[in-house]
Design brief:
The protein is an alpha/beta fold. It is built from nine helices and 14 strands. It has a seven-stranded mixed beta sheet with strand order 10-9-8-11-12-14-13, sandwiched between helices. Strand 5 and strand 6 form a beta hairpin. Helix 1 (13-26) packs antiparallel against helix 2 and helix 4 (136-146) runs parallel beside helix 5 (164-171). The longest helix has 17 residues, at 54-70. It starts with a strand and ends with a strand.
Length: 286
């Protein structure tokens, strides 16, 4: 089957996440988000669709046009390029290399790497679901997790994406872990990455914060766009144990005040804050 590659180049992180959501919904195998550390400010998002699928192409074009109208800064023109199946399957891998985030090492499965004894290696096939470790929202979570004593801590990963945070937490001793995502493709990819890293079984389900497995959790992690975090905050709070902590990431700095107001409304207090570029991550508790 021949494919058409669709891409939006050189966009900021907030726009990239929204565009990736569209590409994950309609693209063949999901979205690829590319940025080169240490400069995370600009991102390219790509996907492919069957070259003859005009209906899907039109849906993507309409969705991107609507996003462009809603964002403060206009999106660049949607780029299209005819590619063969094998070209797409291999070419995007060239842009992903081994990434170090503190003691955590993100190793694409096709790259060779010899780890140091104290490093936590996460084997990952990024690109099929959000969460390669390259984006600040993900790296912020990974840095915070490394500061926590996770041995024996139960964790609820809301919006797991590629499963990267669950894998890293499991390798740092967290257990049990439940990982959910509203996207069934993301859940399948996360399960594949759990198996790849030898951290199965981790509970998985298609759903959001309300699908907490009938229990409260000592650690809740939610790396999602801040407007969604605000919408699901009642369910996030209900999932959090009374003495637990919650990591919230995906907050662009202009949206932090709205998030703080939401936290106050739901009787949650900030215990620590981290910033990377335009992005903020908060650790909160009841």
């Amino acid at each position: 089957m021949d494919f058409l590659k669709l891409s939006l180049e050189n966009i900021d992180g907030e726009a990239a996440e929204v565009v990736a959501d569209v590409f994950n919904r309609y693209g063949y195998g999901g979205a690829v988000m590319e940025s080169a550390p240490p400069d995370f400010e600009r991102v390219t998002v790509r996907t492919v669709i069957p070259a003859t699928d005009e209906d899907t192409r039109q849906k993507i074009e309409i969705a991107i046009a609507l996003i462009g109208q809603a964002l403060p800064q206009k999106l660049p023109e949607l780029q299209t390029e005819f590619v063969g199946e094998n070209d797409w399957a291999e070419s995007w891998k060239e842009n992903f290399h081994v990434v170090h985030i503190g003691r955590v090492v993100i190793q694409p499965s096709w790259r060779e790497y010899s780890s140091a004894p104290d490093e936590i290696v996460v084997h990952l096939d990024p690109g099929v679901a959000f969460g390669s470790g390259l984006h600040p929202t993900t790296s912020l979570c990974l840095k915070i997790l490394q500061e926590m004593p996770l041995a024996g801590v139960d964790m609820f990963d809301v919006g797991t994406g590629s499963g990267i945070l669950s894998v890293a937490a499991a390798k740092m001793g967290a257990s049990p872990i439940r990982a959910v995502d509203v996207d069934a493709v993301a859940v399948r990819v996360a399960e594949e990455n759990f198996a790849l890293n030898g951290v199965s079984p981790i509970e998985t389900a298609v759903g959001s914060a309300e699908n907490r497995g009938g229990r409260q959790w000592s650690l809740v992690v939610a790396n999602i766009l801040s407007n969604i975090l605000i919408d699901i905050m009642p369910d996030l709070r209900a999932a959090l144990a009374d003495d637990g902590q919650m990591i919230l990431s995906g907050i662009i700095n202009e949206q932090e005040k709205a998030m703080l107001d939401c936290l106050s409304e739901h009787r949650l207090k900030v215990v620590s804050r981290r910033v990377e570029g335009d992005w903020v991550a908060l650790v909160v508790q009841k």
